[in-house]
């Protein structure tokens, strides 16, 4: 008690002291007391960029540059996207301090705004590769602005719209696609249940057919069968795709997809439907995830999405695919679009985190090496380079690989569907894991500033964490990658035919030979890098096949794969990293000699070296000797210092300019989003000598010289007391 009243007294007198000092009229001499520290001598190196960042951005974005710029331009025109004019530039970013309800409401308003401006034109009606690439580019941009916005749109167009496109037939396309594109209906996608997420085949919702009325009847038979996490269900969706077991004449035909209305156009929940809210989440609160129960909900027979199977009016089950496993696979195959969009979204988010952390590391100094000399820029510490630059190289590699994934997605055919399935599974998992790791490293690399909401990195962790779970849990997807490779291996062995597809053609060649001693030039050669990645993949595939087969003999078929999980993980990783490296290499090969190719060569080598360094398989199975592993480690360090001069240009290469914030020279660049990391001055005379205070770029422009401002808290306190000098509205 006593201590709490004395501390509140202290606080009152402290505030009085701050206020009285603040209100003191400044004198010219006190103005002189503000001296610039070495921190202010930093000059941004934009003038000395090693290569044309716009050209690099084009290489990395890969497609639809004008469309992307057009959309960025739209966002900054509307208050809905929270534009801020700072230093003559306009920046936009979502406000995560809003309540869940506010975030949901503004997300819907943003969608209406984009709809009115024709952003979604052709999104479900134009299936040409060009139309699909435009859609993917625009979704990239929206995801950079806000994950909730991209996901809410993604659920409506890619999941609801995609299910109608791919699971449906002409009758569904004609009835629903135009209305979907114009948001006359708002769709959601109800697959997951409380009791079954990854295991979609185990869902319990059950649908029967009533031949007397020509209707399907959908039921939630138990609490664990309630649909759960359904994006859009809690507030806005009028219709849903329902995944359900289909029971015809007492026989379960497996999981099928149906269209059901859940709300009328005024937003009232339909009869026999019950909906509840999933509530507040650690991020993505602009998406209204909900739970749905169906109580004998009747829908017309035509609402079965019948591309794979149908039910005749008199109740006969009809499908050209007799095998239930193959039928289920056919149902799931079109769902790759979500994994494609999440893969690229994860990469753009890593870029934002890295842009902020690298820029911070180019302005923040800490400790002096020589004692009296200037403090050292964070990015000049080799250890700091080692933390950020390999992540930057991986992000670049994954950016190029993401473009490769988009290409196989928009040109997909039934023949390429398996490849698309495993590449999208592998990339979605690996890139979303990479994103979470990158954001955490960037958060820490910004020190305390990384924790400020305004500096974005911390928030992004919460917003994007879900990417490791939805659209297929990462661990489960990676197991599917290995399982598919194993099936391909067994089939190639059985039929004694060469490998074709999945990029496994290298298995048809003799096993690569790795030189006994690795020099720097060998390590950096594409031949060595591809050879050692292919060697790892082919050897792990053989080991995995042998392990599963041995366990099958000992433990039975059902357990064999489960028990071989370690090799399955190693193999999925090897497959992913080889595919990424190959995609990077192919993008680089198209370039003519010059600075872009040079720096991409360094990044590709860094990507390869860091994969060699981080995967214990190389040592465990002897693809690298201990001595060579040490050489690789040294090469990582060398590459860090060679890439260091390019670091700023490399984070300025995506079209993030209108997403960024501008807080004075320290953060100036025409390309990169800096956070609100603040510009500071050291006060050498004043009520607390030697204290760091905020500089004029951040404080109101009419700040009185000589007034001693402290960091945020005290300033806010004064403002609340009606300080005449301060314009609270201008504080960032
Ligand atoms: C914010 C959010 C939005 C979502 N939106 C939608 C939506 O719109 N529509 C929709 O239908 N669903 C949606 N989902 C659901 C999402 O797709 C599922 O959460 C996801 O598929 C994982 O299922 P689960 O949560 O039941 O986890 P589980 O499947 O229970 O997995 C839990 C853990 O067990 C592990 N595991 C599971 N199976 C195995 C196995 N065989 N071997 C080893 N480990 C295993 C997983 O790796 C995971 O770590 C959303 C989820 C969230 C969080």
What can you tell me about this protein's structure?
The chain is an alpha+beta fold. Strands 4, 5, 6, 8, 9 and 12 form a six-stranded mixed β-sheet that branches. A three-stranded antiparallel β-sheet has the order 1-17-18. A three-stranded antiparallel β-sheet has the order 7-11-10. Strand 5 and strand 6 form a beta hairpin. It is globular, with a radius of gyration of 29 Å. The protein folds into three domains: 82 residues, no CATH class; 148 residues, Beta Barrel (Butyryl-CoA Dehydrogenase, subunit A, domain 2), CATH 2.40.110; 315 residues, Butyryl-CoA Dehydrogenase, subunit A, domain 3 (Up-down Bundle). The structure holds flavin-adenine dinucleotide (FAD). The site of flavin-adenine dinucleotide has 19 residues, from strand 4, strand 7 and helix 14.
Query: Globular, elongated, flat, extended or rod-shaped: what is the shape?
Result: globular
Q: Helical stretch count?
A: 23
Instruction: Give the mean pLDDT.
Output: 84
Bound compounds, each kind once, are:
flavin-adenine dinucleotide
Number of domains: 3
Given as residue ranges, the uncertain stretches (5+ residues, pLDDT < 50) are 1-9, 12-47, 653-732
- The helix content is 40-55%
* Rg of Cα set: 29 Å
Active site: 471
Protein name: Acyl-coenzyme A oxidase
Cofactor: FAD
Catalytic activity: a 2,3-saturated acyl-CoA + O2 = a (2E)-enoyl-CoA + H2O2
